[in-house]
Write a structure and sequence with these properties.
Elements: E1 4-6, E2 9-11, E3 18-22, H1 31-43, E4 48-53, H2 56-59, H3 81-88, H4 95-105, E5 108-113, H5 116-123, E6 130-132, H6 140-147, E7 153-156, H7 162-174, E8 180-185, H8 199-208, E9 212-216, H9 222-229, E10 234-238, H10 256-273, H11 282-287, E11 293-296, E12 311-314, H12 325-328, E13 341-342
Helix pairs in contact: 1-4, 6-7, 9-10
Length: about 350
């Protein structure tokens, strides 16, 4: 598997799971709220915090006809796209300040740009990496521009067919991207657990030979922990101070205590996965004494034969291994042996 490195931290090939806190619109356009979320993300165990870089005008046009009104099936039903993005966007002039605060907090900050001008802006701040959102998977000119920065890229694949993912990966590689990872994502908000389809991660890992992970919109920690068990090298979750604070994304975001618990669950999951090994652990070595072995279970005198009556395979494991049982039956002993003696080769005549 190709690994990537963001801000000095390796991702993939057995490295610790890279946990991203997505601030999205949860700052409610208050820079202090955004700064607080950066520090909170660090306290909660995140490796990185992510923002989004767009404006209403870089996303869409100010138009009120039916094409620009959000239909049924989302938490934004009935809203006008331009108005929604006006509520949700992160002011571009915050970028430098947020990077400074992230550095002070000891956490990596990077962004999802949603058009080429956003990439140009972010490049002025020397972003350490870029995230391509699921909805931009089909925006090849944007993907090409991001690839040409030479920075590591994390690309979400929500709604993407295998062909669309292949095409996006081809654009990345043709434009010089050497380090990228792919995230499984279900692009509904919140996402039902039965639509998580985590099995696709392993297929993407095998198909593309890169680190894979999960951009998760389900509620709770269960799905991220399972994803790590299935090989996720990255976990991304939306992050808010409180879901009681109204905002475009708060309803499906994690609060700090929940995020901390998720990070703990992720770390436990990655410990449980471990590595392929058939060596005994130290704890297992202590348990081997409770295996079965061959014992003399009746007093026998020198010269007596060992039989099924005077020997048995029982616990504990101090005698010969059970695989030798047929070989010792019918053999004579060379000395008197008391009941409860573990059978050893030296006892046999």
């Amino acid at each position: 598997m190709k690994e990537i490195c963001i801000d000095g931290q390796k991702i993939g090939n057995g490295a610790s799971t890279y946990v991203i806190a997505e601030i999205s619109a949860n700052h409610n356009q208050d820079i202090q709220e955004a700064i607080d979320l950066v520090y909170l993300a660090k306290e909660c165990g995140a490796d990185a915090v992510k923002i989004q870089t767009y404006t209403p005008d870089t996303m869409t046009i100010d138009c009120s006809n039916e094409h620009f009104r959000i239909g049924e099936g989302t938490i934004w039903e009935g809203k006008n796209l331009y108005e929604l993005y006006g509520e949700a966007y992160t002011p571009w002039e915050w970028t430098g300040r947020l990077l400074e605060e992230a550095k002070k907090a000891g956490i990596t900050l990077f962004s999802s740009p949603f058009d080429i001008t956003a990439v140009d802006c972010l490049e002025q701040h020397n972003m350490p990496a870029y995230k391509i959102a699921s909805f931009e998977l089909v925006d090849h000119p944007l993907i090409a521009r991001i690839a040409r920065t030479g920075k590591p890229v994390i690309m979400s694949t929500g709604m993407g067919s295998l062909r669309e993912i292949c095409e996006a990966v081809e654009v990345l590689e043709k434009n010089g991207c050497k380090e990228y990872a792919l995230l499984k994502c279900t692009s509904s908000y919140p996402a039902p657990v039965d639509e998580a389809n985590l099995a696709r991660m392993k297929h993407m890992e095998e198909a593309f030979g890169v680190a894979v992970g999960l951009s998760d919109h389900t509620m709770g920690s269960t799905v991220p922990a399972i994803a790590v068990g299935l090989g996720a090298a990255i976990v991304e979750k939306h992050f808010t101070k409180s879901r009681d604070i109204e905002g475009p994304d708060s309803a499906f975001s994690m609060e700090p205590n929940e995020f901390s618990e998720m990070v703990k669950a992720v770390r436990i999951a990655e410990q449980a996965v471990g590595t392929v090994s058939y060596e005994l652990t130290e704890k297992e070595k202590n348990s081997t004494v409770f295996r079965r072995s061959i014992f003399v279970v009746e007093d026998v005198a020198a010269g007596d034969l060992l039989t099924e009556e005077n020997t048995r395979i029982i616990r504990p494991g101090y005698g010969l291994a059970p695989r030798y049982y047929d070989q010792v039956l019918g053999r004579k002993v060379n000395a008197d042996v008391k009941r409860g003696t573990p059978l050893e080769w030296g006892i046999l005549a």
